[in-house]
């Protein structure tokens, strides 16, 4: 890829970047941290979402999303398809690379309390969120599997303190996830629904008042 070192991120790109880095996206460096590139990869089911993200970061890329196939060693007979794209290497991503990555991989930035805007939460949810019990509850979860228990606690408290969301942390095997209670459904919907891409609305509860917590 051609290296671009002076391209600055827009406000929109910054807010989306924070959200997807809390989710499935990652930053990669090829020159000892001098520059980074953003890589987005999602399943075939989320193809439209990938192309939506591509449009946001298009000016930082040199190729459109591509489809690729892979097989899981746990299920060798099954072939899955994914869509992905990457930006070029950018010095403007170096700061975020330093904030989101440490010696042991992805980490929670110490500045996250300044960065977690409603749009960022929406993209975090689209990347790594889901309904807790589809059709049976208005609760949702954020799959924060990349972060430590302490980091998940920080995120949970931040959602409570900054956005008045009622949250809890539950253990899933050796990882910890954030659950947003049905009690906070309308606060969460007001907060993030305007930013959800149409292709990802299936992830969000429909809001039936008869559903339990």
UniProtKB/TrEMBL annotation:
<feature type="domain" description="Homing endonuclease LAGLIDADG">
    <location>
        <begin position="14"/>
        <end position="185"/>
    </location>
</feature>
<dbReference type="Pfam" id="PF03161">
    <property type="entry name" value="LAGLIDADG_2"/>
</dbReference>
<keyword id="KW-0934">Plastid</keyword>
<keyword id="KW-0150">Chloroplast</keyword>
<dbReference type="GO" id="GO:0000373">
    <property type="term" value="P:Group II intron splicing"/>
</dbReference>
<dbReference type="GO" id="GO:0048564">
    <property type="term" value="P:photosystem I assembly"/>
</dbReference>
<protein>
    <recommendedName>
        <fullName>Homing endonuclease LAGLIDADG domain-containing protein</fullName>
    </recommendedName>
</protein>
<dbReference type="GO" id="GO:0004519">
    <property type="term" value="F:endonuclease activity"/>
</dbReference>
<dbReference type="InterPro" id="IPR004860">
    <property type="entry name" value="LAGLIDADG_dom"/>
</dbReference>
<dbReference type="InterPro" id="IPR052500">
    <property type="entry name" value="Chloro/Mito_RNA_Process"/>
</dbReference>
<dbReference type="InterPro" id="IPR027434">
    <property type="entry name" value="Homing_endonucl"/>
</dbReference>
<dbReference type="GO" id="GO:0045292">
    <property type="term" value="P:mRNA cis splicing, via spliceosome"/>
</dbReference>
